[in-house]
């Protein structure tokens, strides 16, 4: 029996089971029914910080004396040698200060001193934990960590705001950046490339706030993304062909959706013979090619001058004879310079931007071009976008915390005054598992892209079956 016949039979059975009865005379209700109880609103309790045993005055004094001794007497020695001698140093200081006697947790003291000297204070264990992908410091007493896409409150605490500021200064000083009342916001990076954002009082009312997005020690490869379920093997082959075929690709998505990771993977497909210029606010890309020039923006100095924006760097990069331009994030007037570069021979450029869908990304690009201060008609801007971009990769962070590529869309050109977009691959959700994980898969839409011939001219051949859904 066919699916249509089964559905018809089911509908007939349902109709037969419902017999139409003759209308009955209404019976008056003598007593009114009791009203339904009011719906009680579910109260969501705020997470309570994990109680940590507060160190006493003697503990803090011993810690401060130890730090002062190290900074004064052994500042020129290697930190590793100091850590080895930590027991002896603490013992000598206790002997010299008779009033310090009852220090219960010496091991905790040594761990804290080691973290302060060799790392970034209390959050150092979180930064070393490979399962942690993001660390958020909301003042001295609330530190959150993200594991497998889920946030949780940790038992890590700082002494006070000054302690948080000391760790922040340790992060910023090697980079030549600063944060103070005159400049209370800053973007930076750690030595391993992890992204750091900080905002301090008076803008941050709850105390200094630090957000650290960690990067893997070894950059993720396309095989890692396939294993994570971010994309399929068919999509991976298609994306690789697009990069090798020098198509202009834009990666769009929300905050924390994995745009930079995807951009890093896309960059790995660029030929080792190409001269690559990367432009970022804080250098995060980890390219393995030999001929790479990395450029980074610079904030204004204390006098409010000397700022170098992404737009300035995009303009300058055009004079550096790049084969490929990779822009970490497009968010303002640099969109116009990027589109002009893509339309003037710099094929194979890559960039990212924030949006909820490929259509939204096109609209945002129109707005960003207008932010450049050029009074261009909308149709001219859309023609620039349609002529510059070939592919938009949409990245999303789903409700279960996983990061997926939800669509790969071709920019087919203009039809009247509208930019025509066509999905080549899209994510189809089929349900939610018992563990809360979203069940779904990335499937081709059955449409072959218009630039298929361009790829063939570059010597890149993709099987037609790549664009057909497997049964």
Q: Any idea of the CATH topology of the largest domain? A: Rossmann fold
Helix content: 25-40%
Give, in order, the helices and strands. HHHHHHEEEHEEEHHEHEEHEHEHHEEEEH
> What is the typical, i.e. mean, pLDDT?
82
Q: Poorly predicted ranges (pLDDT <50, ≥5 residues)? A: 1-8, 14-27, 40-44
Instruction: Give the name of the CATH superfamily of the largest domain.
Output: P-loop containing nucleotide triphosphate hydrolases
GO molecular function: ATP hydrolysis activity
InterPro entries: P-loop_NTPase (IPR027417), T2SS/T4SS_dom (IPR001482), T4SS_GSP_E_ATPase (IPR050921)
Family: Belongs to the GSP E family.
Protein name: CpaF family protein
Write a structural description.
- With 471 residues, the protein is α/β, with parallel strands linked by helices.
- It folds into 2 domains: 103-217, Beta-Lactamase, CATH 3.30.450.90; 222-467, P-loop containing nucleotide triphosphate hydrolases (Rossmann fold), CATH 3.40.50.
- Helices cover 33% and strands 21% of the residues.
- It has 15 helices and 15 strands.
- It has helices at 3-17, 57-73, 79-84, 86-96, 106-118, 124-128, 161-172, 222-228, 233-244, 259-267, 310-317, 334-342, 358-370, 378-388, 452-457; strands at residues 132-138, 143-147, 150-153, 185-189, 195-199, 209-213, 249-253, 276-280, 292-296, 324-327, 350-354, 391-397, 403-415, 418-432, 438-444.
- The strands form 2 sheets. It has a 9-stranded mixed β-sheet with strand order 9-8-10-11-7-12-13-14-15, sandwiched between helices. A 6-stranded antiparallel β-sheet has the order 3-2-1-6-5-4.
- A hairpin with a 2-residue loop joins strand 2 (143-147) and strand 3.
- Helix 11 (310-317) packs parallel to helix 12 and helix 13 packs across helix 14 (378-388).
- The longest helix has 17 residues, at 57-73.
- The relative contact order is 0.07.
- Residues 1-8, 14-27 and 40-44 have low confidence and may be disordered.
- Residues 118-395 form the Bacterial type II secretion system protein E domain.
- Residues 9-28 have a biased composition (Basic and acidic residues).
- Pfam families: T2SSE.
- Residues 1-50 are annotated as: Disordered.
- One of its GO terms (molecular function) is ATP hydrolysis activity.
């Amino acid at each position: 029996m066919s699916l249509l016949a089964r559905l018809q039979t089911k509908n007939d059975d349902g109709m037969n089971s419902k017999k139409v009865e003759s209308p009955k005379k209404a019976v008056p209700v003598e007593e009114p029914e009791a009203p339904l109880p009011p719906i009680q609103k579910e109260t969501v309790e705020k997470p309570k910080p994990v109680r940590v045993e507060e160190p006493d005055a003697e503990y803090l004094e011993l810690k401060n004396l130890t730090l002062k001794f190290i900074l004064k007497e052994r500042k020129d020695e290697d930190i590793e040698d100091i850590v080895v001698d930590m027991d002896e140093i603490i013992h000598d200081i206790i002997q010299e200060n008779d009033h310090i006697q009852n220090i219960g947790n010496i091991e905790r003291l040594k761990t804290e001193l080691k973290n302060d000297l060799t790392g970034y204070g209390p959050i150092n264990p979180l930064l070393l934990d490979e399962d942690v992908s993001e660390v958020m410091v909301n003042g001295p007493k609330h530190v959150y960590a993200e594991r497998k896409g889920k946030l949780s409150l940790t038992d890590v605490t700082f002494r006070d705001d000054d302690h948080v500021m000391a760790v922040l200064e340790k992060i910023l000083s090697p980079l030549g950046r600063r944060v103070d009342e005159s400049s209370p916001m800053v973007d930076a990076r750690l030595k391993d490339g992890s992204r750091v954002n900080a905002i301090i009082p008076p803008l941050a009312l709850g105390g200094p706030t630090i957000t650290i997005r960690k990067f893997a020690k070894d950059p993720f490869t396309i095989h890692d993304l396939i294993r994570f379920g971010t994309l399929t093997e068919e999509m991976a082959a298609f994306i690789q062909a697009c990069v090798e075929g020098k198509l202009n690709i834009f990666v769009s998505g929300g905050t924390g959706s994995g745009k930079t990771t995807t951009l890093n993977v896309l960059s790995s497909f660029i030929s080792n013979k190409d001269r690559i210029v990367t432009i970022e606010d804080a250098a995060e890309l980890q390219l393995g090619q030999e001929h790479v020039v990395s450029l980074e923006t610079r904030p204004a100095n204390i006098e409010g001058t000397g700022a170098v924006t992404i737009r300035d760097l995009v303009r300058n990069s055009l004079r550096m004879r790049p084969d490929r331009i990779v822009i970490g994030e497009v968010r303002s007037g640099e969109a116009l310079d990027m589109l002009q570069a893509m339309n003037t021979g710099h094929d194979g450029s890559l960039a990212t931007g924030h949006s909820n869908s490929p259509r939204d990304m096109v609209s945002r690009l129109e707005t960003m071009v207008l932010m450049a201060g050029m009074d261009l008609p909308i149709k001219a801007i859309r023609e620039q976008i349609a002529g510059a971009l070939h592919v938009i990769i949409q990245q999303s962070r789903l409700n279960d915390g996983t990061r997926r590529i939800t669509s790969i869309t071709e920019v087919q050109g203009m039809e009247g005054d509208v930019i025509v977009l066509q999905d080549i691959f899209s994510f189809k959700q089929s349900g939610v598992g018992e563990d809360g994980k979203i069940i779904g898969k990335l499937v081709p839409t059955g449409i072959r892209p218009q630039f298929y011939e361009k790829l063939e001219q570059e010597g890149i051949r993709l099987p037609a079956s790549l664009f057909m859904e497997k049964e």
